[in-house]
Design brief:
Layout lengths: L2 E5 L7 H19 L23 E6 L3 E6 L5 E2 L5 H20 L27 H10 L5 H16 L7 H10 L1 H12 L7 H12 L2 E2 L1 H12 L17 H11 L5 H7 L4 E3 L4 E6 L3 E6 L10 H14 L30 H5 L1 H11 L6
Antiparallel strand pairs: 1-3, 2-3, 2-8, 4-5, 6-7, 7-8
Bound molecules: glutamine.
Glutamine binds next to loops.
Length: 370
Amino acid sequence: MTIKQTNTGSSGGGRDGLSARVIDALEQLHERYITCDEGRIADYIPELTKADPNWFGIGLVTVDGRFYGVGDHDQAFTIQSLSKPFVYALALQDRGREEVVRRVGVEPSGDAFDSIIKLDVHNRPHNPMVNSGAIATTGMVRGDSPEERFERILGVLGRCMGRRPTVDEAVYRSEKHTGHRNRAMAHLMLHFGVLEGDVEAVLDVYFRQCSVLVTTRDMAVMAATLANRGVNPVTGERAVEQSYIRDTLTVMHTCGMYNYAGEWAYTVGLPAKSGVAGGVIAVLPGQFGICVFSPPVDERGNSVRGIRVCEDLSRNTGMHIFETHPERDEVLDRIEEVADPSPALPDPAQHLGDATVHARDETLGGHAKE
Ligand code: GLN
């Protein structure tokens, strides 16, 4: 296993011991879940099936710019839905809160990320973290042409990660070619006036945005930028206006993990976002950002290893945002040894019988392959 720790920030007394403990904890979690064979690689975007199910990286970046990484933290993967919070922040900057919320709600949908049927009573997408809301959000980014709009999206992603990202052209073409479900949603939103203008052009920008290449390390820096009130802690550059960080973290907290958002909030308790290529980011405001990357996803499209690592880490350190205590700003200091694997919440299917299992399978149909 590769272990890497980079000090990009200032180093205070006692930091070395702390660094060793953080790396040790991440390493333990990596070892614990490297053999986990649950989940499947998403195949509804055909190009994603080229991923290796064994890829597994964990990265953590503190608000003072320290990076801790284990495993495949330099492996490139496509950002997919991890782009949504950052583009949401850009749309808020471009249009203001009132206009954005008029078009896209802030209510968890309780449905799968690509649910096609449900708009809310105002004919808006429920929130900007599901596909319909994210496509509408992309449509609100300002620019005189689709190229300029995409360039501005690359700009915000680049400032948050501290380098100019590139696009995986094969994944982009693959999704553009097969993304008819998203296309159908976009046309429904055109009908209701949530989207305006050239729908195909908005979708094209959205597909490109989802195909931006990142690493676990990049995403940990991006999560840490959100933790650091919008300033990239490695470059020191302001990437997102501070006034919209609160909105962005709120929708991540309530909606970022799709129809697992409630359970995630209960067990991990951090604003988070997942992407169907296998990335998960989580943010502890004022302290650090984490990214876990591993391609096998569960039936909701969330990385299985990503969930497991964050659940164990949260239990170990008490980093749940509602687990308040005086020394909360020393969460990383409490990393001593990694707690036992989290006990899963009870599975309702066991109590409610086959009908539930059936209903769940239908919602998820076609996201993943054996
Ligand atoms: N590009 C993907 C889609 O629109 C993103 C979904 C995801 O990461 N959950 O379906």
